[in-house]
């Protein structure tokens, strides 16, 4: 369930800035048809920080409803206040998700002990499987492998999304936490190498617009056909890189709109649409990756 190509799903908005549930339903169908292994709803790429609590819960509920058990759904539930993360986790308890993805507390920069106590409190508040999410480039705090190892001893902390792009951490985390602890890459450009080092899969931005290729690539890799997987990865590398030419999810929402996957490519402030200078860069990456407009 927690391996392969897992998409960090975008949250589509309509022309009035409201959640576009028709496009959301279409996205879910796209991923099921493409063979995406799991959907992560309302994480960073899903613009969790600009949704209201009610919207956040409803988007997750609708994603589960649209999936109809055909693909597992995880939900982003993180916050930089522990009590808020616990509240969000509890609100998700009856939605039908298979687990939670909880980002490290951002801006307030806790110590490693603070991170441990934060995640421990969340884990003790729920029976849902919990995934740690370490993305220092966004949060300003780094969850170190030694702290991950302490947390892995808690029954329902089952894995981590590691977006550091530091491949040496895969082996170290495996040594500290054991092979059963699930390691998922949060960096598309190094995701396949992450798996080759002992990881289990990727939570992918690229999969939003190249879902069939990402699903096939990780199926090949997990079945031992790494050379064939690397051929696909090399073709997708322009996307892995240029979907971050501006802050995620700005480029991927523009690309999804251009591909007709969503009706509008709008974001919520303070994020704005992809700049005119960056649009040709993303368009070229789509063409180079053979993801046609």
From TrEMBL:
Molecular-function annotations in GO: 4-hydroxy-tetrahydrodipicolinate synthase activity
Chief localization: cytoplasm
One of the GO BP terms on file: lysine biosynthetic process via diaminopimelate
GO CC annotation terms, alphabetical: cytosol
Catalytic activity: L-aspartate 4-semialdehyde + pyruvate = (2S,4S)-4-hydroxy-2,3,4,5-tetrahydrodipicolinate + H2O + H(+)
Catalytic residue list: 133, 161
The entry's keywords: Amino-acid biosynthesis, Cytoplasm, Diaminopimelate biosynthesis, Lyase, Lysine biosynthesis, Schiff base
Record-listed pyruvate binding positions: 45, 203
Pfam families: DHDPS
Site-annotated residues for Part of a proton relay during catalysis: 44, 107
Coiled-coil region list: none
EC number assigned by the record: 4.3.3.7
Subcellular location as annotated: Cytoplasm
Enzyme class, broadest EC rank: lyase
SUPFAM superfamilies, per database record: Aldolase
Pathway recorded for this protein: Amino-acid biosynthesis; L-lysine biosynthesis via DAP pathway; (S)-tetrahydrodipicolinate from L-aspartate: step 3/4
Protein function: Catalyzes the condensation of (S)-aspartate-beta-semialdehyde [(S)-ASA] and pyruvate to 4-hydroxy-tetrahydrodipicolinate (HTPA).
Subunit composition and interactions: Homotetramer; dimer of dimers.
Similarity comment text for this entry: Belongs to the DapA family.
NCBIfam families in the cross-refs: dapA
HAMAP family noted in UniProt: DapA
Name recorded for this polypeptide: 4-hydroxy-tetrahydrodipicolinate synthase
Species, as recorded: Photobacterium aquae
